[in-house]
Automatic annotation (TrEMBL):
It comes from Didymella heteroderae. It holds the Pfam family NMO. GO terms for molecular function: nitronate monooxygenase activity. This is Nitronate monooxygenase domain-containing protein. Signal peptide: none annotated. It comes from the Eukaryota. The keyword Signal does not apply. The keyword Endoplasmic reticulum does not apply. Keywords: Flavoprotein, FMN, Oxidoreductase.
């Protein structure tokens, strides 16, 4: 939900009883503006907090200027800080420590996609929350992984091994392919304490994206056939900083089928950029 979930959507979710996140992703240049907007939107809202701003902020570690964002976090003190895709475990450990010092009441959330990653992060970074993402998820995640049905119980068992005392273990939150109550109920049975939804909110009025893109999300069904995990869209957009271990799931469109048919990356990127300029007409 990078730069799609901003102040309006985050606040709407928090007002409804969840916790909404501002998806800064790799671009923190307007983070202060987004948090100022959230503060104004929440001015008269009756949302109980521990003295923090009742929204979260999500970062994609490998590309975000976390040093630049640090004083902004210290100023606004969001309820949660979500880290994802660090360049290394050591880097993640340092930034979790730095952000805890800057905003001690903010909860640290870390997104993981494998049992090993979950155990390492729990042991080295002591997050408050582990977001366990299965491979059904839309957007970016591990290229090789498992769905929540097998991943979540195994992660839970691994955390119990790494952190024997239950009171010191992170809360497990499920992510990936969850869009309604049946999936949420299944995640709770598997051991999660809650769920994260992203793609579901692409259809909301508050989401910042082209109407044509929204229409495609609403039109698509049979997701195992109409979506695919690939690096094609990163290549077309120029967001090529992702590690080889990660790719993204999206709806199959001409950018993907042209790449599959052998079109050169440069030509595909040119056509993609032309379609983006068309706005709503350029999607799908």
């Amino acid at each position: 939900m990078r730069l799609i979930a901003l102040a309006d959507l985050a606040v709407a979710i928090s007002k409804a009883g969840g916790i909404g996140f501002i998806g800064a992703g790799t671009d923190v240049s307007d983070l202060e503006t987004y948090l100022e907007s959230a503060t104004k939107l929440l001015k008269d809202a009756e949302v109980k907090t521990n003295g923090t701003l009742p929204v979260g902020v999500g970062f994609i570690n490998w590309g975000a200027d976390l040093a630049r964002a640090l004083p902004v976090i210290a100023k606004f003190k969001p309820s949660a800080i979500w880290f994802f895709a660090p360049s290394s475990l050591a880097e993640l450990r340092d930034w979790t420590a730095n952000y805890r010092k800057a905003s001690p009441e903010s909860k640290i959330w870390v997104q993981v996609g494998s049992v090993r990653e979950a155990g390492d992060v729990a042991r080295e970074c002591s997050p408050d929350v582990l977001v366990v993402q299965g491979t059904d998820a839309g957007g970016h995640g591990l290229a090789q992984g498992a769905g929540l049905v097998s991943l979540l119980p195994e992660v839970s068992d691994r955390i119990a091994e790494v952190i024997p005392e239950e009171k010191h273990r992170p809360v497990l939150i499920a992510a990936g392919g969850l869009v309604e109550r049946r999936g949420a109920a299944a995640a709770l049975v598997l051991g999660a304490s809650g769920v994260v939804m992203g793609t579901r909110f692409l259809a909301s009025h508050e989401a910042v994206l082209a109407k044509g893109y929204q229409d495609e999300v609403l039109r698509a069904s049979d997701g195992g056939q109409t979506t695919v995990r690939t690096k094609v869209w990163d290549n077309a957009r120029g967001t090529a900083g992702w590690a080889e271990t990660h790719n993204g799931r999206g709806i199959v469109n001409r950018t993907y089928t042209d790449a599959l048919g052998g079109m050169a990356d440069e030509e595909n990127k040119r056509l993609y950029e032309e379609d983006v300029e068309k706005g709503d007409q350029g999607w799908g």
